[in-house]
Amino acid sequence: MSAIHYPGASLKPHRDESLLNGHLWIFSGALQQPPRWVENGGVLDIKSATGKFVARGYYNANTDIAVRILTHDFEEDIDLEFLRRRIHSAVALREVFDPEQTNAYRLINSEGDGLPGLVVDRYADILVAQIHTAGMEQLRPLVIEALMQETGARGILLRNDGQSRRREGLQIEEPTIAAGEVPEQVQVRENGVSFFIDFWQGQKTGFFLDQRDKREALRKYTRGKRVLNCFSYTGGFSVYAALNKPPAQVTSVDISAPAIDAARQIFEMNGLDTSAHQFVVADVFDYLEEAHSQGELFDVVVLDPPAFAKSQGARTQALKAYRRLNMLGMQVLKPGGILLTCSCSGVVGMDDLLGSVSLSAQRLQRSVQLLESYTHGVDHPIHIAMPETAYLKSIFCRVQ
Ligand code: SAH
């Protein structure tokens, strides 16, 4: 028996089907009426139109997703023990990483780890957490306690500065230490490559952990090659290429000067001679046009742009932008060169990305072979009933 009595809300007839399949969202239109006695972020029980318990989750009247499900088990209370069980299971999945090689990874991937609204990245012994929803915000003290108990972390930094919090009716906050001690930066390893992470000021939680497997996959194409890494951030792809034997000669381009500074330092940390590589602060579109007009050619081009479409409404515009980018990228690629192109827009599917590369190639009259395709790494699990939460698509192609 569940020890706590939760307020309830009923679904319209036949609206429990996707929930019974395991989906974790209920849209406001599926509820018979807005629940009473539940504040935003409060936990409630969802019942079918015939009054049967279906699931337990948290509510928000401000958002299209009215309820995010936490459990389908009537016996399971939403308390410290619940959070500990979910975190324990998430920690167990990450045991696939050999800490000697990789000690930076996503520890909690929101819905994918059964904790909607919570993202936690692990950088050595420091956790960086983001709370995206009002429901998770209400659980915040318990989440922090459970994380400390289950991970033995030295400290937890909260990065609640994402704009998505506004939609939930939450404040944007300065980065704050939620538990333990958190230094200025830490040094981590990813597939044996060293990085330092500025989790106080860096983008997102400080690093783009979702590209780990693509960085590793890129290595084999870059031995002794001339590589252009567009949207390089702190040089993730670049360092992997430069550490090859024989080393690649790498140009890293990003619009953010602090990111390019960090990339240079990360090259040095890995014992690389920065004078053998180029570090460019520029808009990638401008850079590629200029490079093409100068007749520059590379063996390998990486295109890992920020999300061009954050909503369904922005999709058409975004598809155009991907097409333009892929064309510009191909124009500076030698015949037989390798293109790694990515999209992290949720509303742009793998088919869209393939279509964009294919159209760009047609326009340039170049033929393309698809070599490898990827989504996220294993530390970004996706709930099987919610494929729409898989945002990242990456493909490796050879362009003749
Ligand atoms: N590939 C990186 C992550 C890229 S994230 C990695 O492996 O770590 C996207 C990056 O694009 C950010 O660093 C952002 O500063 C940069 N950016 C956004 N718009 C840009 C533009 N128009 N030109 C160049 N860089 C841009």
From TrEMBL:
Cite the S-adenosylmethionine-dependent methyltransferase domain residue spans from the record.
Answer: 179-365
Please provide the Gene Ontology terms (biological process) for this protein: methylation
Entry annotated with the keyword Transferase: yes
Q: Which domain of life is it from?
A: Bacteria
| Protein's UniProt keywords contain Cytoplasm | yes
Q: Where in or outside the cell? A: Cytoplasm
Q: Name one GO molecular function term.
A: RNA binding
- GO CC terms on record? cytoplasm
| Keywords, ordered alphabetically | Cytoplasm, Methyltransferase, S-adenosyl-L-methionine, Transferase
Q: Which CDD domains match?
A: AdoMet_MTases, PUA_RlmI, RlmI_M_like
PROSITE patterns associated with the record:
PUA
Domain RlmI-like PUA, residue spans? 11-71
Family label: Belongs to the methyltransferase superfamily. RlmI family.
Q: What is this protein called?
A: Ribosomal RNA large subunit methyltransferase I
The taxonomic lineage of its organism, from the top, reads: Bacteria, Bacillati, Chloroflexota, Ktedonobacteria, Ktedonobacterales
Question: Its gene?
Answer: rlmI
